[in-house]
């Protein structure tokens, strides 16, 4: 438990954190610095510590309570009434229900400040979905962001880990019922954000923006959710005007999702039933629990050729995107990929030329260095990767090099890079945390997650996976880096291996 540190010169512990059970982790924020202690609630996952290191404003704030107070206290100081906004914001964070965008943590203004709502944390196995708590959190977030950024005309209140919520409800991500749940939640989010923004307008903060709505699905699997969303939309229709130009949106992934322990970003579909370490993903475990299906039965069904988890395909992502879009002002564009080279019958392996293009990327993830080298065909297509982990054990380095060789063989035999990205992006295991050395991808859940999201950004145009603000659809992506071509006169022949001849 926390102790009051007022006597030692440290700020007092907020009352909401007193009695919270804690644990201490050691994590390095930079590869050239030793690991430092981080204190988080015991109920938080390990990845939350990495997110806290990336979000805290001062290196001295080693506890989650101090890092939270750094952005909550200034907001509470701006409130003119006696509303206890501070304890409510602390409670949201302690329960991992919601957290603000990085700018608020760092004390820096953002063009579009936001809040991320972790949907599964509002679902209770016995009481169901906490609709009242969800709506209170929405209005609280609008109020907090407006007082922290009074000049911001756009906010981005977004949902996260929709896939895990649907799994706990035993709904297939690709089903119509799942899309109805997502659309109704998005409609409720938009309506209560409008209500809060209209309340700020009534205090004379801004001239006002007309409010427009969208029709809700006829029915929803969550009891009472449709009625709550309909009532909120009816109230919004009477208000007519709000303070902000837009209020809802899903921003690129970052340390906030890591802090909340989110498994899938926004409304994204899960890519696999397995996590990066080969175990079942959280959403897959939740789906089996909701179906009452033991692991043995799931294994038997898998061996028989069926899918007991309901892993969605790309079409499911498109239909989910279309269902939520009317209620969300800012959504990442659906992935657009470049044409892939197909394997030609009878040709087999398409080897790279002896002299090939490519580049080397040096980064560090959670203090672990990584070198990624690429090899390209003359037309710029990726045909080879090499992975070097200089500070890891010999066994781990060998496994990484062997894995890179296997991927290279697959690429040269015509396996599309997109298939590798779909399989390994956002895998979660081992080394994870903030990324140093790559401005496009600032957070990675594993080494494989970084490698394949980086390759997708540079070779497939998948800037929706990069997670950097500058890679939003408004900004064209830079082309892959290529080396300078050398003149033919400077090309040296390969050294011939000496041969032994027997002369009789």
Automatic annotation (TrEMBL):
* An example molecular function term from Gene Ontology annotations: nucleotide binding
Describe the location of the TSCPD domain by residue ranges. Answer: 353-457
UniProt EC number: 1.17.4.1
Q: Which domain of life is it from?
A: Bacteria
What keywords were assigned to this record? DNA synthesis, Nucleotide-binding
> Which portions of the sequence form the region Disordered?
467-504
So what does this thing catalyse? a 2'-deoxyribonucleoside 5'-diphosphate + [thioredoxin]-disulfide + H2O = a ribonucleoside 5'-diphosphate + [thioredoxin]-dithiol
- Residues folding into a coiled coil are none
InterPro entries given for it? TSCPD_dom
For the biological process aspect of GO, one term held by this record is: DNA biosynthetic process
**Similarity comment text for this entry:** Belongs to the ribonucleoside diphosphate reductase class-2 family.
Name it.
ribonucleoside-diphosphate reductase
Give the source lineage, highest ranks first. Answer: Bacteria, Pseudomonadati, Pseudomonadota, Alphaproteobacteria, Acetobacterales
